[in-house]
Amino acid sequence: MAASKEPWPRSKRPIAATFRDHVSVIRDSVRFTSSRFGTSLLVWLLIGTAMALPAGLYLIERNIEVISRQWDSLNSFSVYFEVGASVGDINELVQQIRNHSDIVTVSTVTPEEALNEFSSYKEITDAMTLLESNPLPASARVTVDDQLSLERLSEVASQFEAVGVVDEIVVERAWLQRLQAIGEFISRLGWVLGILFGAGAVLITAASVRLALEMRLEEIKVLKLVGATNAFITRPFLYSGAIYGLGGALVAAMVLSAALILLEAPLGALWSSYGQMVNLQGDEPAFYSGLGLVGVILGVIGGLVASNQRLREINID
Amino acid sequence: MSKIEFQRVTKRFEGGGEALKDVSVVFPEGTMTFLTGHSGAGKSTFLRLLLRTESPTRGQIFVNDVNIVKLPVRKIPAYRQNLGAVFQDHHLLAERSVYENVALPLKVAGMREQDVARRVRAALSRVGLLEKERLGTRALSTGEQQRVGIARAVVNRPKVLLADEPTGNLDPDLSRDIMTLFEQFNQVGTTVIVASHDRELIDAMGFRIVELASGGVIRDDDSTNLDK
Ligand SMILES: Nc1ncnc2c1ncn2[C@@H]1O[C@H](COP(=O)(O)OP(=O)(O)OP(=O)(O)O)[C@@H](O)[C@H]1O
Ligand SMILES: [Mg+2]
Asked: Do B151 and B226 belong together in one domain?
């Protein structure tokens, strides 16, 4: 007699039966959720809040990454000459810079070119017509060797700082590296908060599912008596969890899109002052689908936690 | 179809005495048996062991030569799907309709909705509750609730039918009717065990009677089982 023997041969349960179960369970779960809409809404808001913060940090981090990539000045610095510096003096310095061994290219921008570039920004040109002379300085964009470290780049740049015609030298990379460091920090923070708040979302769902389970304890006992498997019994609670998680993700998505809309205008103004176009990341379908998926997964985990914990306590087997 | 055998089964409850003491009984396949005895004799315990809602303290229980005491937990659902059980305390879902209660074993078994409806109506008409299928079980009398439990036990045409005081709340005519229903199942091969202390009824039925007293078998029509 084999150890795995059963008193009766097992009848094959058709795949269609499992499919039917799922369909009817989804119908029941949706009905259950909507019949207790107030509670469900509260759970959605809680989960949504828990998800919005880490997801928001993720968006910030991604935008920083995109911004730093957009910036093509990683291996360059800008030299701004004094207004009214003579062309001869400027050319002399440019020649000097070109001769430096670490420098690859130097391109100069005359005050007139700078003005032309600005003329694409209407408000600024309007303001400038009030001025008698061109207030913009000549500048030079200096590209250095790709391999150059930030320290060396700053060193090279500072060599020209003391020269008379130079007003200011700007090493964008320092700024950018700071931005990247902030991005890195935000990313870490996002992960930490993501794990923390993700666990929070799981616990919220687990508590809510547990409540629903408690209400149906009698039913679970009866189901066990008539031979329902644990999978059959837990299925409705996993779907409830999924609905809670999905609703939470929806709330988080709404919060984030509202935040993006609010932030886009001021960020656009800030960025355009650096001559960059802002194009915030995060309003694409992939992000929102991902958010929804994470919500569903967290919800199902919450449902699993609740039902596994409770079913083990129901002493019938 | 289904042979059931208790081998020296003892059940001791924590903090209680021994509900069953060294009980050995055989129920050959396709037989119908009444289990009787005074209140507290161990009839419900006997049936619960067969359902595996309780496990014996000692001894073996074989169903078709498979020791169900050793049946792994994951195989219990499939095992129970082949049993039909009527419970002394009904175990109905109060929030659901009569129809939904009876449909439960069929839903669990994954039957199609049309077949479920047909089977449920057949079972309900057999216990005389067809016209109450839409009612919630709370709205029923105790006897009606008992009949819903009976319909649920037979709806999936079980291989073994276990009934714990199925006629406890029914009048004599209805009781006879329910017993006839069990008899019909027995005639198509189902092994039936009915716990009842309605001596008049079980004597009239003329089936084998096993009597328990304080957890031991004190009488068995089938002398091979008598443990004296
Ligand atoms: N879960 C339990 N814990 C402790 N003792 C129990 C438990 N279940 C049953 N018993 C005891 O086991 C004995 C047998 O109980 P059982 O329910 O099997 O009797 P019964 O023959 O069905 O009685 P009745 O005719 O009143 O239904 C009783 O003394 C009872 O107190
Ligand atoms: Mg009893």
From this structure: no
